[in-house]
Amino acid sequence: MIKFVLKKILPILPISLRIKLRFVFEHGYWPNLRFPKTFSEKIQARKLELTSNHAIFADKYLVREYVREKIGEKYLVPLLWHCHHTDFKNFPNFDSPAVIKTNHGSGSKHLEFIPTNLTNNELVDKFKIALNEDYIGGIFGESQYSYIERRIVVEKLLSQNNQVPHDFKFHVFKNNGKPIWFLQVDFDRFMDHKRNYYDSELNLINLQVIYRTGDYKLPEGKTLHEMASIAFNILGDLDYARIDLYYCDNKIFFGEITLTPGSGFERFSDKGFDTLWGSYW
User: Which residues pair with 44 in a beta bridge?
Assistant: First the structure.
């Protein structure tokens, strides 16, 4: 009943009020969007300034060209097939492991690994539904996804030891010409999801955001610092973004760019870090 009422009421509220109400619910304080100080407040302020020009960073197809120009083709996961939503009728046969995804959505409804247990008809039906589904964050201001011209993207499935490799999420800040970064690693996703944060010296930070921390063996420092350098090159003219990279078979691959991670609603266990990150932005 509550979800039904919210679904009916939220869309008629001004976007800034929707954001503020959700923010209070998640963070426990009223956000200052005119003069934001914390990282979480600054994500909300950014959402109010997003335009169609930001869609390229969220579009899983168009972002490939942006990344190619910034760091080169070799960091892109090989593209096997793509199709505009108006032309989509069926999938070709894929001879090697692949991942199918929409270019605007996220979550299991917008993703399928090949080979799959789904029949071809089930696969087609799944992605026809996904193509017609709006990005869930749009109602709280993540409009960069709403501007995307929808299509299906199929890429080679990266695999290491018969598993999808971990992605390394770099929170990168321009910081007034003094770049700084923090690393986020999510692991054990399908068992007991854990999330660690590290500073630029690769020290584990005493910080929890949604998930608890755990034991994790990082790749060697040289590799991670190379990845951080690549992330800064991808950042370009942006003052902040989360840049996700994969490390597979001793190679670095681009994953995605996120302008509004967690929609700014994920509470920091230590608000001091939320304020610290905000000071770098």
Answer: none
